[in-house]
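QA checklist item 7 of 12: single-chain prediction sanity check.
[x] sequence parsed
[x] length recorded as 304
[x] structure emitted
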Amino acid sequence: MPQAAPLLLSLAFLCLPFAMPAGVSSAENPSTILTGKIVTTVTRAVPMPFNSIVNEVLVKPGDAVAKDAPLMRYHLQEEAERILQREVTTGADTEETRSQVLNMERQLAETIAQRNKAQQLAASGLGSRQASTRLEDDVRSLKQRIDLLNAAIRKRESIFADRLKELEGYFGVPVKAGEQLPPMLTLTSPIQGHVLSLNGAVNPGALLNAGATPIQVGQLDPVLIQVHVYEAEIAGIGLGDTATVEVPSLGDKNFTAVVTEISWISTDMNVSNPSYYMVELQVPNHDLELKPGFKTVVHFGGRK
């Protein structure tokens, strides 16, 4: 029987309760404690519309900015300037279409005169009604073609007008067809908030390609905290619940957060893995103490 002792000992070990994963409450620890990181409610990367060269950077990280506030001044890279100047000089480019309209209008006037004469002859019995009907169809067809060309002209002019309005937003002054482009453009903030980051390579004289995002602007009051909640705990958390947030970087200072969003689907749908759900909390940040990326410890309590 000495061989049975190790077997019994192994079975006893398997029957012991497993340690609960971090963040999961137990009978001795009824609250749920989770870690997360602070993120902004809104973040917008500000893209460069053209290949450009930096003249002056007007902001630094942490600066408060209003919507449409200037962030940077720059001028167009040489090839980009040539292309854009050609576009503005060319304009809506409707001259050829307008010439077609004039030719058709002259043709229409002649066809109308022929139709009227054919109708008079047909009415007096000296002409064919078939010829009169054919000329009437020609008049109708010419009018339709003229209408289509005029609609195309209006559309192209409208598109070009919108383009000039767009360029006005980049240059900060009105841009008119056929005129020389202003020498300087301004990159502006798309939202009210704070400058979150500034590309370290953005200095006067630096070349920035179209689509590059040298500056990020975000809203810092309030901020958000995102935590992953274990499936056994998610039923105990609801929208509007309050939680206490500790921030180690601020000497474990406490803040009050409110649950604003709970995901309905697990972050991992693999059946062999435990399921966690994303919970988002909102925290007031009037003094801007909380910075994106700060680690937090979230203590979930009772509901409001």
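[x] summary fact logged: Residues 115 and 181 are 51 Å apart (CA to CA).
[ ] second reviewer sign-off
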